[in-house]
Amino acid sequence: MTVAIPADLIEFANEQFARRNRLSREFIPLQSAALAAVCREMSIRFQAGGRLLACGFDAYVSDAQHVSVEFVHPVIVGKRALPALDLSLAPAAMLSALAGPGDIAMVFGPPGSDPRCEQLANLLRSRGTLLLQWPGSLGESPLSAATDDPFIHQELTEIMYHTLWETVHVFFEQQGRGEDVGAAAFLYPFLGDGESSPEATMADVARSICQKARDDEALRSAFVRDQATALAAAAGAIHERITAGGAILAFGNGGSATDANDFVLDCVAPPPGIKPIPAISLALEPANLTAIANDVGVELIFLRQLIANGRAGDVLLAISTSGKSKNLANTLQEARRRGLLTVALVGYDGGDIARQALADHTLIVHCDYIPRIQEVQASVYHVLCRLLSALDR
């Protein structure tokens, strides 16, 4: 059955993306110099053996997960794995046991003041740990939230910690410690002549951070221009299933797994004014993931869970940057056989998921660089949450 798409729903989507771009243009340039400075300090601490310790509360647990996987398993070929841990399971106890004066800590929380975050911040400052508190501080520089909208706050935070992950390798090279920028060179043309002074490198990194935000703004504009109707249609189809008693099952690999977790947390514990939606993440439970991968293979880690937890009438949301992962394709195919509505949020050209029409609704962020894809995908699924809430009214 075709779901009618209210015109005001499409206009609402346009307004949501325009607001994100406006806040990004205003906020990120103000933080770029402080981000460059803490990134340089991070590189010094990593070189000396320090670790990155991340933790978050509520929906911001997914940011700590995302930071850990990005630093340990970098998507730029040839970049070294950097020591990073997600300590959100028991943040106070684990930071008390592990944080030292040569380490780096990232604490993620909501836009307003949160006593849990402040307690951790006080502990970390007393240890001499470099503190990045979102919001709160970037090292010695204060960091306020750009907005009280928790979704946009989280999206801008993701842009900032992605730029730290990308640019820390620039400072390794600038320090002359033998780190080859390699596949990342196109992002940092100012390193090509090898003559940059520390001050010039800092200024260039700050400009590079601003450019990354502008790239996101262009991608958001392109997405909403070309796919606002498709996004509204997907929201309408999902809302129909939820209203009839269905649930959403979300999943993805790596950074996309953390996005699936984030989306599910946003559904079950949404911001004020949004009705909770039943949702499950197939990427959340390490015991299930590792047991299935070990016993029957990584290509079945999501399919096996779908068989156990999926029901006809549910919605399956696949999140991928490439659209090529076999474990996602297998699960989408099985979901369709079982009567689930299938939705895919993908990057690049949509990959096999788009070419083989494996989803009933496919939303594509047309970009070939993973951090930018993920940042805009976060905007897409957060706007999707807003659209689902608007359909309830």
Q: So what's the overall shape? A: globular
Structural class of the secondary structure composition? alpha/beta
| Poorly predicted regions | 189-193
Average the pLDDT over all residues and give the rounded result: 93
N-to-C span? 22 Å
Report the portion of residues in β strands.
5-15%
Strand order of the largest sheet: 2-1-3-4-5-6
Tell me about the largest β-sheet.
6 strands, mixed
Q: Quickly count the helices.
A: 12
The counted number of beta strands is: 11
Q: Whole-number radius of gyration?
A: 21 Å
Which features does this protein show?
393 residues, alpha/beta, five-stranded parallel sheet, globular
Outline the fold blueprint:
Blueprint: H1 7-47, E1 52-56, H2 61-72, E2 84-86, H3 91-98, E3 104-108, H4 115-127, E4 130-134, E5 136-138, E6 141-143, H5 150-174, H6 198-243, E7 248-251, H7 255-268, E8 279-281, H8 286-295, H9 303-309, E9 315-319, H10 326-337, E10 341-346, H11 351-355, E11 361-364, H12 370-391
Parallel strand pairs: 1-2, 1-3, 3-4, 7-8, 7-9, 9-10, 10-11
Antiparallel strand pairs: 4-5, 5-6
Helix pairs in contact: 1-5, 1-6, 1-12, 2-5, 2-7, 3-4, 5-6, 5-12, 6-12, 7-12, 9-10
Folded structure, characterized:
The chain is built from 12 helices and 11 strands. Helix content is 55%, strand content 12%. The chain has 393 residues and is α/β, with parallel strands linked by helices. The strands form 2 sheets. The protein has a 6-stranded mixed sheet with strand order 2-1-3-4-5-6, with helices on both faces. Strands 8-7-9-10-11 form a 5-stranded parallel sheet, with helices on both faces. The chain has helices spanning 7-47, 61-72, 91-98, 115-127, 150-174, 198-243, 255-268, 286-295, 303-309, 326-337, 351-355, 370-391; strands at residues 52-56, 84-86, 104-108, 130-134, 136-138, 141-143, 248-251, 279-281, 315-319, 341-346, 361-364.
